[in-house]
Write a structure and sequence with these properties.
Low-confidence stretches: none
Mean pLDDT: 93
Number of helices: 10
Number of strands: 0
Structural class: mainly alpha
Radius of gyration: 17 Å
Helix content: over 70%
Distance between the termini: 26 Å
Largest sheet: none
Strand content: under 5%
Amino acid sequence: MAPSAAISRAGIVMLIALAIPIGLYALGFQFLGIGNPEFQARFARLPLAAAAHVVGGGIALLIGGFQFVARFRVAAPHWHRWLGRIYLLLVLAGGLGGAILAFQATGGLVARVGFFLLAVLWLWSGTAAYRAIRRRDVVTHRKWMMRNYALTFAAVTLRMELGLIGALGYEFEVAYPVVAWLAWVPNLVLVEWWLLARRPAP
């Protein structure tokens, strides 16, 4: 196995391993009432938007990483296509719910703009991925799906960063507006770097 292929496989395994507990936490938040009571109360004010965002985003996070497993795509292309359709429908629900919830996000205007822009880009990249595969442009489709899952994965990086910032002694009210941007912008930058690094030399 080439070193780059080994690194890619290890990266996918790590993504899936990190995504599973956060995806399950999202479902527990929605259906079992676990998590921060303040967020539970805030989300209860907009129950449909909250359910769409939490359940859509949580399940998308759980299944999205498996779409990048090459062996699965080759061995079960039919299931790959159907799982992709389900994933994009979940992103649609999660993105629309997130855009609505962004207007009441904790952290003031900075956090609200950050989360709203995340929702818009999440929906936009999902639409671009869908349009690319509809015209059978597989290469472009995969690039947009990488960008889209990077935004889905913001649910993971947000919680990791909140934990780190909290461990450094910063208050939640200070950290949250920063994390509203830091949770997803570096994810996109990393994907773009990866795509540029793998581009064939002219």
